[in-house]
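Researcher: Go.
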Amino acid sequence: MAVLLETSLGDMTIDLRVDESPIACKNFLKLCKIKYYHNNLFYNVQQGLLCQTGDPTGTGLGGASVYARCYGQQARYFEDELHQSVKHDRKGLVCMANAGAPNTNGSQFFFTLRGDDLGHLDGKHTILGEVAEGLEVLDAINLEFVDAHSRPLRDVRILHAHVLEDPYEDPPGLGEAPPSPPPGEPPKEETVPARLQVTEDATEDKSHAELEEEIEAKEAKSRAVVLEMLGDLPDAEARAPENVLFVCKLNPVTRDEDLELIFSRFGPIVECEIIRDYVTGDSLNYAFIEFKEKASCEEGYKKMDGVLIDDRRVKVDFSQSVSKLWNKYAEKPRGRKEGQSKANPADPSFVKQPAQTAAPSSDLAPQDPRQDPRQDPRQDPRQGQARKKSRYHSRDRSREKRRDDSRDHHRDDHRDYYRDDADTNTGMIAGMSEGAGTDGMGTGLLNRLA
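Model: Structure:
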């Protein structure tokens, strides 16, 4: 029982140990039969230890056994097949990769890249076979440059899996094998960004640093395309101007003219703008300075980064803003014929727009007051403002009159209340004087009440 794997770096023949690991071998053979492994990435290459594949997503977090296809997601994993006598003791062993716990085998598997010091794998991973031919392919994979996450900088894939001999019957629900996808085309489940394709002489005379730089440039372009789709960039090819400096950590009291005076010693400045809050007008403590020449901008960056300005140590860098480039990509040139690429006056097809001239007016001709802003306050802003002010003034006068009337009404009510109270006290005093007689106590009370 054997399987032939075609990879981006060559072919390997795998002999399966159907007697030791029948469940794992049946799972592997049936997944190969339905082309589950076609174009899967080698996404984990730990040099001198192992190289891992078998996940269509390319992340190491996906994949499922063939039993999940036949019996549902509850059968996504199958149990380990471990033996005391079976050891990880040679290069080229094919082992099942689990989800970090026992009995969690799915579709992922790995190859050992060395034959010693592999005892930590014993009793944890099921061995389902070994490479009979093509160990040089493992050597080539082991030499691939990888990033910090152990992923190769080039996309090394399983291009095709040929089942040479299969002793097992197909489980119910396996279905027919789909058509083979084009070699090298990523699976539809793959979620990781694409990298360099493995072609002849793709890395000839290229160092590790050069390959990483090429990868970064490709990923940066992909991110720029995404930002353009989201509307954050005017164009994926847009580049920030090279003659603009970005200055941050400014003191709020720093003014535009002060900053321009400080940076003008490096060369002519086209524009110096401190960004401010559009509501309050307060400084947001950063600014953009546009120089006339690129050399002046570079000199300003070298000399002014970390300098104290108004008791603040500012940070100076080259601007990455493309906000002023939107007009270049968004606005269409005007004054041209249909199909003309640019509004170039030197182009014979350029259509010059006629100048707008005012019609001659006659002082003797009667004029419509609606056409004369001096007579129509609706078209004269000063008359409109005066009319609005007059309307507000009359409204305020009405409000004041109502407030005065209310105040007079309350004053009259209080005056009547105090007058009635005084009359009541006078009557009470008179009654007490009649009943008190000449008693000294009554006299004193009357005097106090009076």
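Model: Residues 332-374, 388-392, 429-446 have pLDDT under 50 and may be disordered.
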